[in-house]
Design goal:
By secondary structure, this protein is of the alpha+beta class. Helix content is 36%, strand content 24%. The protein has 13 helices and 17 strands. The chain is globular and about 80 Å long. Bound molecules: glyoxylic acid and manganese (II) ion (2 copies).
Amino acid sequence: MTIPEQLQIDAVRLEEELKELSLFTSADPAAEGTAVTRIVFSKDDLLARAWLKTLAARERFQVCEDAVGNTFLRWEGLEPELPAVATGSHMDAIPHAGMYDGTVGVLGGLEAMRALKRSGKRFRRGIELLLFTSEEPTRFGIGCLGSRLLAGTLDTESADALRDILEDESTGTLASVRVAAGFTGELETVRLQHGHYHAWIELHIEQGPLLEREGARIGIVTNIAAPAGYRILIEGLGGHAGALLMPDRRDALCAAAEVILSIERYALAANTASGSTDTVATVGTCGVFPGAVNSVPSRVQLQVDIRDTNPARREMVMQAVRHDCTEIATRRGVTITEELVNADEPAPSSAHIVQVLEEICAELGIAPKKMVSRAYHDSLFMARVAPIAMVFVPCRNGVSHRPDEYAAIDDIALGARVLALAMARLASE
Ligand code: GLV
Ligand code: MN
Ligand code: MN
């Protein structure tokens, strides 16, 4: 029996730490209530990282950071040469977000490691907690930046050249921003070899309504849906809002409006054709140039996020959108160009880790729900270097990426307990 019977999660401390972490935010509490905004490498992100390292130091976990700021906290095993078991998630938060996305996996993972240490048992394998850099695409336009580099799926030169889209697009790049944040060194050194970890499990809130709706307290992820991102640039003709006559207009924003509706239409059509709701598409940003009320928009950039469990179907939606773009461009006298940001494959969970999680739930008397993750996670890329799985806990009304995101501490603590017990078993293999 590898499970320490006495293993207990300190839910009170975990809740306090989640609250404390939520205070590292640049959101204005007066204007934005409980919103959390924690952009990668911002002052709040760096302070939150420093705070996490002090928590790790109290436990005497070894800490190391790579050239992009991925941070590894390690509790050494009895056989240090064996590949470790690892968990973790992210602490960066999109603008106006809640306090549980990612943080539950970092602080819940930390508490799981502490609980294992408190149990007095030692394990063959080391146990690690990873804090990933920039799971959210807010600053560099691409999600899972740190884990893409760990998995070697992102060319390091293009990664360093990624523009800082929040600050000064003309000068700021990942290369300059990470060095300013204290993360120097070559990005080539970030990559992990396949087999680096024996097993990987990420704890996360579900970010959807299914667990709550079905009364399940634990979700076991069997597959992570495949995301893709595009930038669509529409260039027309600018001019004076009073003097440029309607028949002469080539308004980039009006063309963009048609493109946005086309994306929505084909995602809905894919749902109807497949009889599932697995295709989702979003235009989340719309940059209008020059952005003055009395100026006809000459240039618009859209950021498009499209996901599916089936990448071929995702591509069919984009093909139909491209067809519409050609027609819109001709009819409106604008040019429309598309830039691919990322088109990723889905990731299956390891049957072995899923089985371990199911056994642990059975021992705890819990009926877990096996499910697909429609959100992406760093686990999508960790699957390129290790066998993975994820543990989901319910969140109220399925709400996420909003300030009113909420997960009950009892559910979070249960998720951390399942994680700890699974890591104990895997670290004993
Ligand atoms: C992660 O934040 C996602 O957008 O799925
Ligand atoms: Mn998120
Ligand atoms: Mn997340």
